Amino acid sequence: MIRAIRSELLKVRTTSLWWLILIGVVAFTAVAIAFNMLATYVTIHPGTVGPQQGGPDSLLTSVTGLYTSGQYAGTLLAMVFGILIFTNEFFHQTATATFLATPKRTLVIGAKLIVAVIVGVVIALITTVLAVGSGLIFLSTQHADLYLGNAEVLKSIGLNWLAFAIWAVFGLGIGALLRSQILSVILGLVAMLIGQTVVQVVLALLSSYFHVKWLMKIAYYLPSSASSIMTSPHGADGFEWWAGALILLAYGAVAAVIGTVITRQRDIS
Predict the structure, then answer these.
(1) How far is C-alpha 164 from the chain's CA centre?
(2) Which one Pfam family would you cite for this protein (predicted)?
(3) Number of compact structural domains in the chain
């Protein structure tokens, strides 16, 4: 297994994939940090931009959002990496050589899975360093509580790392299922960026039309919503952080199992 993991890490280091992902992570995190700084500023100075309620709880939520900036785009990039780490084998026609060198396909998938998790955590580390570092500077200039020793904030940061790792595994499952690099990336991004938004809008309309509030809660079972819930100090609408974590873990586990089963049974050539 160690040799297989080293081989997968070498593939990552010797391609342009890692620095393209890095550029995307830094750029999107910077945008998210700017947006969350504005939201936190409004919370610290209520009434600055329209009516706004201040208070310790709202400030804690804003600071947590600031310290976990970049989660939405970052998790999508982690998913894309998970897709590419598998589909690159077929795009560059190296799959046959890889499985000949390591005939046990489960071992290869396991190595790719571990590398996907490692890279997911590294992406989370980068976003955390950028978000927490700039967040501390910003909060200091506003003479606000840093909340850095707060248990809820630390828990949210840790769970944010878990979210990145799970999304990378989720992407690996998508790549194993479809194998086509372009198709997997397009469908993955469309489903997460557009598909989830469409589902949320439809649920909102149905909930409003039939006056049934519980329909809106179905949206919390979507991957992105589960990610947000698990890193929120107070959850969302009755959903605790652990519920979001379990939902997201279920997505990752199902994707990993399906991807492994399909790869073991499908003809590689």
Answers:
(1) 4
(2) ABC2_membrane_4
(3) 1
Taking CB atoms within 8 Å and a gap of at least 24, the contacts of 6-14 are 7/101, 7/102, 7/111, 8/85, 8/111, 8/112, 8/114, 8/115, 9/115, 9/118, 11/85, 11/88, 12/85, 12/115, 12/119
CA-only gyration radius of the chain, Å: 20
Q: How far is CA 196 from the centre of its chain?
A: 14
Give the DSSP H/E element, type plus range, for residue 2: helix 2-13
pTM to 2 decimals?
0.85
Could you give the CA distance from residue 235 to residue 213 in angstroms, rounded to a whole number?
Answer: 17
Residue labelled with tokens 């910003």: 138
Between CA 189 and CA 198, with CA 195 as vertex, the angle to 5 degrees is 145
Residue 242 belongs to domain spanning: 2-265
Taken in order 245, 249, 250, 251, the sign of the CA dihedral is positive
